[in-house]
Amino acid sequence: MMLYLCRHAAAADVGSDGTDATRPLTAQGRHDFKRAMRGLSRLDVRLNCVLASPLTRAQQTADIMLRELGEHLPAEQSVIISASLAPPGRLDAFVSELRGLAEAAFSVAAVGHEPILSRWIGQICFDSPGRCRMKKGAIAAIEFDPHTGTGELAFLLQPGALRKL
Length: 165
Known about the structure:
Elements lengths: L1 E6 L19 H16 L6 E4 L3 H14 L10 E2 L9 H11 L5 E6 L3 H11 L12 E7 L4 E8 L1 H6 L1
Helix pairs in contact: 1-2
C-alpha cells in the first residue's frame, strides 16, 4: 500500500467558535494546497481512500486532496474521519484502520497534524519516533505494509517543491 501522510494546509489562528478544533483553512492555504496537489498529480499519484483528523482544517485539506487526486473514485466517495489522527495521535489505532482497508485500498492519504505525523514517519520507517520537518501542506509517501506496521520512505516533499512540479 502507498501511504501518503499529509500535514494540513495553512489555517486561521482561531476557529468560528474560538477553539483550535474549528480553525478553517485560510483562502491562501486553500489556494496553495490546491496548487501543491496539482504537482502531486504530475507524479501520477491517484488515491482510492482519504482519511482525516476530525479537526476542521484537516478535513478541509482532505477534501481538496480527494477532489484533486481521487478522480477514479465514485462521486459519492467522501473523506473518512479518523480519531486516531487527532492530537495527540494514536499510531496503533491508525495502523489497525489501515489493516482494515488493506484489501480494498492500495493508495491511501491521511491528513493530520504536527508533531504527530513526523513522529509517525520516524516510527514507521526508521523504528524510532524521530522528527522531520513537515511544513503545512507537506506530503510524505511511504511504501507501507499494513500487516507489520512498517514501511519505507519514498519521498518527503514540502509544499513549495510540490507547487513547482
